Amino acid sequence: MNTSPAFYPIGTPSTPWSDTERAEWLSRQTRHRSYDSEVLSKVELLRSRFGIEEYGRLEYGDESFPLLAIRSLDWNEDLPVILVTGGVHGYETSGVHGALRFLDQHAEEYAGRANILVVPCVSPWAYERIHRWNPNAIDPNRSFYDDSPAEESAALIRLVAPVVDRVVMHIDLHETTDTDETEFRPALAARDGKPFTPGGIPDGFYLVDDSESPQPEFQQAVIAGVETVTHIAPADDNGEIIGSPVVARGVIEYPLKKLGLCASVTNARYKTTTEVYPDSPRATPEQCNAAQAAAVCAAIDYSLAHQ
After folding, report:
1. Which of 65, 174, 258, 273 could form a disulfide with 58 if both were Cys (CB 3.0 to 4.6 A apart)?
2. pTM reported for the whole predicted model
3. Domain residue ranges of the chain, discontinuous segments joined by +
């Protein structure tokens, strides 16, 4: 569907933001929800069933956010590692709660077959502000590289470093929302001093594969697992989804490492980024969370069967 672009109120057209504009942007951000009550409290309920560790802590002004990872209780160094991440973009709600749903309802089914490592909310400050960026107006999902300027990304890189070569599958849970077009893409253009070109938001679920090492059968297995829960996004009239050619039903490709995307953080053979559309009239929040969990299960099932 198409949405109308909003004029972005910060900055001068064609001029990248300075520290002044970034400070003005930060001053406009307000807290809308609680990481503690909506995420940490749910993780705490899992403590008897999983290993929980604080792998870092974000300190932004007078706010402090513990970064939590949840592991299989029966972690076995001889088993393959499965990595699930959510909330890299904090505003993408079903990424966080889909990861938590997977842990609560499905993760223990893989006991003895794989080590499960889940980071449900990579960007808690952005979760509370319902935003894409961190307080420094940096997108963590373009920052997964050495000497990352985003502490959210750097902390996750440190967490997975010991298992970077043992991860067989990494699924990163995201959403594409109407606010991508009305707020976040205009903000990005303003921040970088570039023109904003209106686009469209696909109605439905889709995946982003790695163009440098595509795994089309794996992607289609995930699509098949999800379409029992929610609808798959069709290609637009140009055969594209958000400006990228559709290479298979519900699948586009990005160069994950080149773009510094979270899904490139390990050397996993199988990796994908999910994109749920929560603003669809055909999907509920519960359905979006269930679709994320179904994607995780389908991805694990395929990767363990095709090691």
Report:
1. 65
2. 0.97
3. 19-305
